[in-house]
Amino acid sequence: MTDIAALTRELFAQLDAACDEAAVEQVRLNALGKKGSVSELLKGMGAMSPKERQTFGPLIHGLKQSISDAIAAKKDLLAEATLNARLLAERVDVTLPSRPEQRGRIHPIMQVFEEVQTIFADMGFSIAEGPDVEDDFHNFTALNFPPKHPARDMHDTFFFEEKEDGSRMLLRTHTSPVQVRTMLSEKPPIRIVAPGRTYRCDSDQTHTPMFHQIEGLVIENGVHMGHLKGVLMEFIRAFFELDDIDVRLRPHHFPFTEPSAEMDVRCDRSGGALKIGTGADWLEILGCGMVHPNVLRACGMDPDVHQGFAFGMGIDRLAMLKYGIPDLRDMFTSDVRWLKHYGFEPMVQPNLATGLS
Ligand code: PHE
Where is the Aminoacyl-transfer RNA synthetases class-II family profile domain (predicted)? Predict the structure, then answer.
C-alpha cells in the first residue's frame, strides 16, 4: 500500500516547485491524470476489504480534494501574475500631453460653407442638396431657359454624351436646379439653402471649371423684395462680422427670377488692398430676385397663390474676399503649404455665439 502521507508531501512539493502554468499542468497529470498516482489509488480501492476502505477511503478522497484545490489555486495565481506582467508591459500613460502639431486643416471653402450655413440656419433655413450630374429639365427648362435660348450658351455647360433618346446629361452649371427639386418635393412654406459644387467650362485667374455656390430659396405667402433684401443684408453683416454694411441692389437679368438683381457691397480699393464695408467702390457678390411665375408653374405651383424669392452666390469668391486670398486657382492645387497658411483649425466649429472665424 502506497504511503499516502509521503505521496501527499511529494505532490505538494512538486506543486511548490512548479513556476509556470505548464509545470502546474504536469503536476495535475502526475496526480489526477488517467495514470496519475491519486487516480491509481482510487482505482485500487475496488480491491480493498471493507475495513481497509473505511480507513483509507477518506484519506484518498481527502488527498484528491486537497491536491485539486491547491492546483486550481496555483493556476489562478499564475494567471493573475501573467496578467499583471502584461498590464505593466502594455501600460499607457494617459497623462502624456497630446501631439503638439495638428497636421490637418479645414480648407477655407469648407470653412466658409460652414459659416454661411450657420448664419442661414440661425434665420430658420434648412439645408437641401441635389446631384452634381443633372438633366436639362432641372438645370435649364424648369428654370425658364427656353430650348435653344441664348442664355443657355452663357453657361458654358459640360455635357455628357448624347443618350439614345437624344437627351444629354450635364454637370450642373449652378445650384439653382436644387430650387426646382425642392419645390417639386416639398410643400410651402419653404426656406432652404443649398450648398454645392457647380461646373462651367471656363478657366482663368477668376474662374475655375469647378467652383462652389450656395443657393437660397424661400416660398411663403406674402414675401417680397423687401424680405429678400433684409435677409441678404443680415447675412452680409453676419458673414463679414461688420455692424454697419452698405449694400445696393442693381437691376439685372436671370431667366428664373423677375424682377432680378445683383447685390453689391461697398468697398475700398484704394492702396491696392480690398476692404469691405467702407469706401467709394462697389463689389458684386450675389444674384437674386423673385421666383419667376414660369418657374413656379413648372414646379406645380400656382403663381397667383405662391410667391417666393431666391438668391445664389459664389462661395469661392466669398472665401477670397473674407480671408484675403489673392488667386482663385490656388484653392484647388492641393498644396499643403498653402493649406497650412490659409486653412483653419479642425476642432473649431464656426458659431454665431463666439464668432465665425
Ligand atoms: N444661378 C445664378 C447664377 O449662377 C444665381 C442666382 C440664383 C440668381 C438665384 C438669382 C436667383 O449666376
Answer: 112-346
Look at residue 270 and give its three-state secondary structure: coil
- Annotated binding site, which residues? 258
Going by their DSSP bridges, the two strands 308-314 and 281-291 should be labelled as antiparallel
| In the chain, where the domains are located | 4-89, 108-342
Is the overall model pTM greater than 0.90, yes or no? no
Residue entry with cell 435660348:
149
C-alpha triplet 63, 65, 68: angle, nearest 5°: 100
Between the CA of 338 and the centroid of ligand 1 the distance, in Å, is 30
The dihedral through the CA atoms of 320, 325, 330, 331 has a sign that is negative
Ligand 1 pocket, residue 287 CB under 6 Å? yes
Q: Give Cα 336 to chain centroid, integer Å.
A: 21
Using one digit for the tens of pLDDT, what is the confidence trace for 275-311? 888 888 998 999 999 999 999 999 999 999 999 999 9
- Please give the class, per CATH, of domain 108-342: alpha beta
Residue 288 near ligand 1, beta carbon < 6 Å:
yes
| Cβ atoms within 10 Å, residue 94 | 5
> Are the C-beta atoms of residues 341 and 324 closer than 8 Å to each other?
no
Mean pLDDT over residues 227-232, rounded? 96
